[in-house]
């Protein structure tokens, strides 16, 4: 298995400056390569520039600008050009599929936060041998940076090393292959889970896991910080020390919310994987569920629109995104694979409207958000518990069909 390990870096003040310069120069390389592709297509008879053409120019670029480009790893710069090439490949794929293309954009310095080194030992070196009881990673142009390694790195060897910035924090991400699975002893228990907003999830055993609502808990503080940031006029933005401090505060709050949510997801997933051999969940399309409703033109008023419930839908969308279902299900799948457990996604349609006793499906079965009562047989239970039970029943059908 391939696994990623994320560790906090503890750079010195001088190393922090060097890391920032590394991101800035790779961002400049990315934007320059993007501009070259745009110019070639627009002004040179729609000529296409590919990764191989731009990679061949790196030697001359490094020689022309040794202070900004020549000091960094050649392989990391190639990885940045590959990143742009992948963006164009995805753009053309969406064009052919008839989807919204989304042409690759120029990256601002504040939005280019990752530099990748494709191979350990080429411009970077992961040194797991403790120096003064501290693990270090060596980066070309930066030096040996202390790493807070909170758990051992497993696997045959480190494949790639990435350095990323989140607010004022720096992290190193190691991708390792051939990581051995750490299988847990079987428990003989199976469960279906129903994801929700009132409760984060409900199991088929009737257990509810509360929704912590991290974004809502910090809404007042975050709103105040965002309002303060919005008070700066556009002409002075990114030019004053106070504006940069206000932007850092907003980023810091978002980072705290993100870390709290991820920690909750990891702990909840670990509990499920520890207690159950098979876990079934709904196959959820979060992106489609959180789309804003389409506007409804008013036929009686040219240029006017009818109410479409956008305000109410916005609140629901915010709650769904705050819960982070997609991230949690991804973490659950990874932990289950490592522990030798099985995760089965099933069709999510009508799981909370189907009676588990008689199989009757009707919208009227869902009386309220929390109450289920079948209009045919009279079976009554918690609606989320009913949904989790139906998820488990559908997973059983999937296993029977596969057998």
Count every helix, treating DSSP H or I runs of 4 or more residues as helices.
11
E-strand count? 16
- What is the distance, rounded to the nearest whole angstrom, between the alpha carbons of the first and last residues? 25 Å
Overall outline: globular
Q: Can you list the strand order of the major beta sheet?
A: 2-6-7-1-5-4-3
Largest sheet: 7 strands, antiparallel
Determine Rg (CA atoms, Å): 26 Å
Which percent range fits the helix content?
A: 40-55%
Task: Kindly report the average pLDDT value.
Answer: 90
Structural class: alpha+beta
Integer tally of domains? 2
Beta-strand residue fraction: 15-25%
Low-pLDDT segments: none
What is the H/E string? EHHHHEEEEEEEEEHHHEHEEHHEEEH
Please render the helix and strand layout as text.
Elements: E1 3-10, H1 13-43, H2 51-56, H3 58-64, H4 74-96, E2 114-117, E3 124-131, E4 134-139, E5 143-148, E6 157-166, E7 169-177, E8 190-195, E9 199-203, E10 208-210, H5 214-217, H6 219-230, H7 241-275, E11 278-282, H8 286-289, E12 296-297, E13 305-306, H9 310-323, H10 325-339, E14 342-346, E15 371-373, E16 380-382, H11 383-402
Parallel strand pairs: 8-11, 11-14
Antiparallel strand pairs: 1-5, 1-7, 2-6, 3-4, 4-5, 6-7, 8-9, 9-10, 12-13, 15-16
Helix pairs in contact: 1-4, 6-7, 7-10
């Amino acid at each position: 298995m391939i696994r990623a390990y994320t560790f906090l870096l503890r750079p010195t003040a001088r190393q922090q400056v060097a890391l920032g310069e590394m991101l800035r120069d790779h961002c400049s390389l990315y934007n320059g390569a993007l501009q070259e592709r745009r110019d070639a297509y627009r002004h040179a008879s729609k000529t296409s520039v590919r990764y191989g053409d731009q990679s061949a120019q790196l030697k001359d670029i490094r020689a022309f600008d040794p202070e900004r480009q020549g000091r960094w790893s050649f392989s990391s710069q190639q990885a940045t050009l590959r990143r742009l090439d992948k963006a164009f490949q995805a753009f053309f794929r969406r064009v052919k599929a008839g989807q919204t293309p989304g042409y690759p954009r120029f990256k601002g310095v504040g939005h280019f936060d990752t530099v990748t080194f494709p191979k350990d030992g080429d411009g970077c070196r992961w040194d797991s041998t403790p120096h003064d009881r501290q693990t270090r990673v060596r980066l070309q142009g930066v030096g040996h940076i202390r790493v807070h390694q909170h758990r051992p790195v497993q696997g045959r060897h480190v494949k790639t090393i990435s350095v990323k910035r989140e607010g004022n924090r720096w992290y190193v991400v190691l991708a390792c292959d051939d990581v051995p699975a750490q299988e847990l002893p079987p428990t003989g228990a199976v469960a279906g889970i129903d994801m929700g907003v009132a409760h984060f999830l409900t199991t088929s055993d009737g257990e509810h896991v509360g929704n912590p609502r991290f974004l809502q808990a910090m809404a007042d503080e975050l709103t105040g910080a965002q309002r303060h940031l919005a008070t700066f006029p556009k002409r002075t933005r990114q030019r004053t020390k106070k504006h940069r401090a206000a932007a850092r505060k907003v980023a810091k709050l978002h980072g705290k919310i993100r870390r709290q949510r991820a920690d909750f997801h990891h702990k909840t997933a670990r509990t499920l994987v520890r207690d159950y051999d098979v876990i079934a969940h709904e196959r959820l399309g979060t992106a489609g569920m959180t789309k804003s409703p389409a506007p409804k033109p008013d036929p009686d008023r040219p240029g006017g629109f009818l109410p479409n419930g956008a305000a109410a839908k916005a609140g629901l969308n915010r709650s769904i995104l705050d819960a982070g279902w997609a991230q949690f299900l991804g973490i659950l799948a990874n932990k289950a694979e490592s522990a030798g457990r099985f995760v089965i996604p099933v069709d999510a349609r009508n799981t909370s409207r189907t009676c588990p006793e008689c199989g009757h499906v009707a919208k009227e079965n869902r009386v309220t958000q929390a109450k289920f009562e079948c209009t045919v047989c009279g079976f009554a239970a918690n609606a989320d518990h009913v949904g989790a039970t139906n998820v488990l029943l559908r997973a059983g059908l999937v296993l029977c069909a596969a057998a």
